[in-house]
Specification:
Blueprint (H helix, E strand, L loop, with lengths): L2 E7 L2 E6 L4 E5 L13 H23 L3 E13 L7 E13 L3 H15 L1 H6 L4 E10 L2
Helix pairs in contact: 1-2
């Protein structure tokens, strides 16, 4: 896997993935940024959420669950001094569907966290990562 990050101007950068997709990153205004894009640490959290959500949906689909929606809300804490690493991250999954099994949703979240999600396992080396979920019955 390869990626490229190129400086645009001020504190704005564009990142391009090996698959050809691009994203703009920018620094906070107090550091010379213009708030044109996400901060790099925000992108780490989004990567974690995307990786975990992908796993949860895939595991549930393989378990023959009728998943209609999956959303994860992420809250994180960082230390105040450099390097400002994450120390605590909490993921709250909201999984919607028809006749979903709470046990199967719990299993999918656990398997993602402990076995499949590379981002979760990697970030778990420096941060305490917790998860919970809710099942929402769709009409």
């Amino acid at each position: 896997m390869k990626a490229r990050v190129k400086w645009l101007d001020n504190m704005s950068f564009v990142g391009e993935s090996d698959s050809g997709h691009s994203v703009v990153m920018d620094g906070a205004p107090e550091f010379g940024g213009r708030n044109l894009g996400m901060r790099p640490m925000e992108m780490l959290l989004l990567g974690l959420g995307g990786c975990s959500s992908f796993d949860v949906v895939l595991i549930l689909q393989k378990s023959k669950q009728q998943v209609l929606d999956c959303e994860v809300h992420i809250e994180a804490e960082r230390v105040d001094k450099d390097p400002k690493v994450f120390t605590r991250i909490h993921l709250h999954f909201m999984v919607s569907g028809r006749n979903l099994s709470g046990e199967k949703v719990e299993r999918a979240v656990k398997l993602s966290a402990e076995k499949y999600c590379s981002a979760s396992i990697m970030l778990g080396k420096t941060a305490e990562i917790t998860h919970d979920f809710e099942v929402i019955e769709s009409a």
